[in-house]
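Loading example: each entry is read as two labelled lines plus one structure line.
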Amino acid sequence: MKAFSTLLDRLVLTPSRNGKLKLLADYFRDTPDPDRGYGLAAIAGTLDLKSVKPALLRELVLERMDAVLFRYSYDYVGDLAETIALVWDQERKERVPDEAEPSLSAVVTRMNALGRTEVRGAVRDLLDRLDPSGRFAFLKLATGALRIGVSARLAKQALAEFSGMDVTEIETLWHGLEPPYEPLFAWLEGRAERPVLATPAIFHSVMLANPVGDGDLANLDPADFAAEWKWDGIRVQMSSSGATRRLYSRSGDDISAAFPDVLDAMNFEGVVDGELLVGGTARMNSPTRTFSDLQQRLNRKTVNTKMLEDYPAFVRAYDVLFEGEVDVRPAAFTERRKRLAGLIDKTPHDRFDLSPLVPFSTWEELEAIRRDPPDPVIEGVMIKRLDSPYQAGRMKGPWFKWKRDPFNIDAVMMYAQRGHGKRSSYYSDFTFGVWTEGPDGDVLVPVGKAYFGFTDAELEVLDRFVRNNTTERFGPVRAVRAEPAHGFVLEVAFEGINRSNRHKSGVAMRFPRIARLRQDKLPADADRLETLMAMIDAREDTR
Amino acid sequence: MKPDQLLRPAPAGLYCPAGDFYIDPVRPVARALVTHGHSDHARAGHGAVLATQETLDIMEIRYGADFCGTRQSAAFGERIGVNGVTVSFHPAGHVLGSAQIAVEKDGLRIVASGDYKRGVDPTCAAYEPVPCDIFITEATFGLPVFHHPDPKTEMGKLITSLRQFPERSHLVGAYSLGKSQRVIRLLRDCGYDAPVYIHGSLARLCDYYVSRGVELGDLRPATVEKGDKTDFRGAVIVGPPSAFADRWARRFNEPLIAFASGWMMVRQRAKQGGVELPLVISDHCDWPELTETIRELAPQEVWVTHGREEALVRWCELAGLPARPLHLVGYEDEGD
């Protein structure tokens, strides 16, 4: 565990990308199998570890120490896992000798073999045998809250750096392999052949686009690019090989079970990239339905007949990665597009259609089209280089996304909650509300929660306001003063808005973030719920 | 004699009514007894100062020859009468010259420990337990979260980082009195014999340590002769943390900021300070050392001062020892 916990300690505090790559590459080089494979999995988010509830950890620590002393400690440190890691020894001075420390693989194997009733004893024993930094790493893994500022992509980049192999090669294999990745390391170190994947219908990392930034397009020739609509569904990958058919989310989660209607219709061989939507296809001449309709079908393990009838799903195809067994990713976009059209043509009309291209000749023209899309389920345009191959990851240059401008409202801060990790000592998660008519005059009704969009300096301002204006506390949450003449106005930007019967206000925002602090405004100047309702109506009217 | 006739908290610091003197007063007084040379304990402008020779020397280095009216040096263990009260100085193991002060009259003895630590430190005399009726302890790291690891293990992290990032200048933040010299000494004890570059504010104190027999090896000023950043590639530079936010720090090649302090035990402290390599090296007691010292001395009463008083007072209560916080002001807990 020592090598892994030391790595985590360094990664958390290393700001530079190159520094992180170096630390990771050294770790992969110096750590034996299978430990390094589990370390890789922990960082890339593919480690499956029996989870431990924070409540159990609290119980374990209070078995051995005074509750008041624990509270003082927790208040000071601000993070439960770190507090427990640090206070576990209490007055005990002697250190755990390194040899007696269980390895990361021993921890993972042991935890995953436990029955329900054995967890408590095993966690206690592991905490006894690890040093503070090992305890911290273990607790973060077991509570599923490892935040170290390293993406899976960066971990793969480090593998490339350590082995001299190309990162796209590693990406290609990635989803067919499992922790502790011994065949992968053997291949990377030149000790074995390239691993052969067991099932051909594996997930392949998807190609992502960068948002169009200021001046990005100015030096690019529109003639080198194609444009298509960016649909407001979820990005998926369909994989079909012989009898094996799979539907994956953009991050590689297998969501096949919830979409038998799509799966049954996948009569092609190959791997296709597209947008999962609800409604009818263009080939059937029926309208595409909204994201909130699609949400009825998401995050379900199974689906009933009524759901299938009321919310029929289909895929609007964007790209093809494999045609049969042939990897067509190196081919140019225009070539792949031709192949995709041929492939989709032979599929059932009600389940698949081809995302149409949007003709344009200048960026100004495209800008106008983007601002006024013909369908409410369009959230912008995608711009793709005609000669670009299909490359996993988010490369700058070949693909851009140009979203419709976000919505903005002024809302009033109502509650604040302490953040996590780097922000554990700040109130950084904000619930905000807008005015609506109550039985005794106007009241604020919460409409969303946002925890990013502000700078560190702005966070200081927000945090100070929370601390100085707390009216009530509920655990980690504070209610703050929010009166017409006293309070904090936040300009909130969001990507979309829908009706919701799960929220008291009746609305649900997508991707809300804090766009600006409006200290120049009084809460009385903030928006009203009717304004938000009108935004939803306006969207629905354009259909 | 009642304890508060012998020592009690007053606005200027810990006051002895029977002997009419203060211990570590935070503002100028007629007669001061000083435990050690850190600036929140040793201030300039007192009438008479009684302290160890090293502490007097350090005060002179920091404040100039006229830092007080008259001065008297106390040898460890020597019993000195001050207006009918007997005082004696005993090693505290905090920094060079640091002492605990025992104050006695009519059979009552109170020990004001100042800042102290129990861990091994070759740069100063080791702490000695002094039996007493009332023990006044600091509580800088008075929370069960604080466990200072073996300082050599911590220094090993710096050595490893120098090997991993040989192109980067390693800037080690360390308090200018005590911590800096201890860090340099630890580096030497870990076999690092390359030159160590020091910030100008450390030079005289380092020289003084060397003159008192603490070997620090090849020390050089961290100044750029020809304005070439690459001069300090892979070098260790020691300076006060305050200098790192300064223009001074920008002269180094891809600086990697390390900080030697007991506070580095808590990740958020390191992160908020922009520290890339925390080194948990402290000149104060950690929680096991504080509690072990109190158990060992078994005084009739414990008074707790600067730091996290409430937790240590709570611990004493649980251990069945009468304890109270002193609420002295003016001592910063950043001095580690």
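Chain A is about 35% helix and 25% strand.
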